[in-house]
Amino acid sequence: MSGESTLEAARARDALDPLRGFRERFALPRDAHGEPLIYLCGHSLGLLPLAARELVIEELDEWARLGVQGHEHARRPWVPYHENLTAALAALSGAHPSEVVAMNSLTVNLHLMLASFYRPTGRRSRILMEAGAFSSDRHAVASQIAWHGLDPATALLELAPRAGEDTVPEEAIDACLREHGEEIALVLWPGVQFRTGQAFDLARIVRAAHRHGCIAGFDLAHAIGNTPLALHEAGADFAVWCSYKYLNGGPGAIGGCFVQQRHADAQPRQHHSGGLPGARLAGWWGHEQTTRFLMEPQFRAAAGAAAWQISNPPILAAAPLLASLAIFTEARMERLRAKSVQLSYFLEQLLQPLAEQVHLITPREKARRGCQLSLRIAGGAARGARVFAALAARGMVCDWRSPDIIRVAPVPLYNRFEDAWRFARALGEVLRESA
User: Fold this and answer.
1) Which parts of 77-232 are beta strand (E)?
2) How are beta strands 215-219 and 238-241 bridged, if at all?
3) Are 85 and 55 spatial neighbours (Cβ–Cβ below 8 Å)?
């Protein structure tokens, strides 16, 4: 596994990698000696695109030069600034440009989507989601249920893996909907499960949800920029995401959402003071741009997903994402996905000799995972935590998730096959030392 021949094979693959030049466009964290760390944590926070610094400084300079006039006269005017992100986000999410908008953060967007799409009526009042979902999603869902005067203990239906398994197959979702579909108002599911790295067939989930009269929404925090998406074609009703993981937008970066065009078209475009625009919460920035600054009491909705905006976008938080999305557009998702499949498989093969001590809980089929591999270390959580700490001491930047998972994500934009080799070698050394 860790012989020089394998290292040479990794370097040979890196030399032939058509995407290898993109690594140079990111800031690589370094150790005390100035050497790059092995950064395998893009599933938690993506690296800084070097161009982001210049874009942020440009906006600061425009602010200094123009003051309030920057809203209309900056190099990239601030009023429609979010529109600079639309085309790339539409491409990455598999949506029409009118169906996506960059705004807020993930959980704020989830609350806005639930306010529109969770409409409990009579017996159909439950929300189906995964057991062990990211806690912020669960908090949002439970609070929305309670907001409607319902009890999350009964209205929240959480689907767990079968005993002895780590993942939930789509057929289990189908079965749950067959059994409880008439009680379920909305299904909220991840594109990629954050702990296990399992990717889901979103179109299948949409079909199953719609078959039983349920709304289908998705949290794509770990999917966008990681796996190919086709939200419009799949018929998804809504989706939300953050931009600081695989999209490399920076800590707390502006998030985004998708609203299927049929829902935007079904909403009234105007309403008078004292009423809400159908099932959509209204804010100033969701007002059509041409009449927004007339400050009239009537709300005139912007077209498409843009009508769900509440406030103007944070320019300094959006600029880094603009830098990253330009890289995605150039690299092209189909090429990134091809490398991701090869890179994660290469790492998996390197870990095979450690199989007695390292259990891969991420599905092995390429269609059922992104670039993340989740590893459970034999010997229990305490040993796993020691192994994780020892890896960090060797310059490996990955992630620990309680109670016993090490998450490793070789990201195709900036990780190399050599990085996978170095991680596997370090893990082997640490396991031998901790035996």
Assistant:
1) 100-102, 126-130, 156-159, 184-190, 215-219
2) parallel
3) no
Cα–Cα distance measured from residue 407 to residue 411, given in angstroms and rounded to the nearest whole number: 12
374 closest CA partner among 413, 394, 403, 333: 403
Q: Flag whether pLDDT at 269 surpasses 70.
A: no
From residue 62, alpha-carbon distances to 74, 91, 167 in Å are 6, 29, 49
> CB count, 10 Å around CB of 28?
14
Sign of the Cα torsion 329, 335, 341, 347 reads negative
What is the helix (H) or strand (E) element at residue 360, kind and residue range? strand 358-360
Closest to 299 measured CA to CA, from 282, 311, 313: 282
Which of 279, 205, 281 shows the shortest CA–CA distance to 239?
A: 205
Nearest-5° Cα angle at 369, 186 to 339 = 135
Separation CA 217–CA 129 (nearest Å): 10
Distance CA 149, CA 127 (A): 14
Strand partners, 240: 219, 257
Three-state DSSP class for residue 130: strand
Rounded Cα distance between 418 and 407, Å, is: 18
β strands within 41-147, DSSP E? 100-102, 126-130
**What would the two tokens of residue 281 be?**
């919460």
Kindly state the percentage of the chain with pLDDT values over 90.
Answer: 92
pLDDT digits (tens, 9 = 90+) for 190-244: 999 999 999 999 999 999 999 999 999 999 999 999 999 999 999 999 999 999 9
- Confidence band of 1 (pLDDT split at 50, 70, 90): very low
**3-state SS class at 425:** helix
Asked if residue 188 lies in contact with residue 127, where contact means CB atoms within 8 angstroms, the answer is: yes
**Structure-token pair, residue 123:** 């017996």
Give CA angle at 187 (184, 188), nearest 5°.
145
DSSP 409: B
pTM over the 0.90 mark? yes
The amino acid at 189: W
- Which domains, from first to last, does the chain contain? 4-36+333-433 (3.90.1150.10), 69-322 (3.40.640.10)
Tell me if 243 sits within 8 A of 107, measured CB to CB.
no
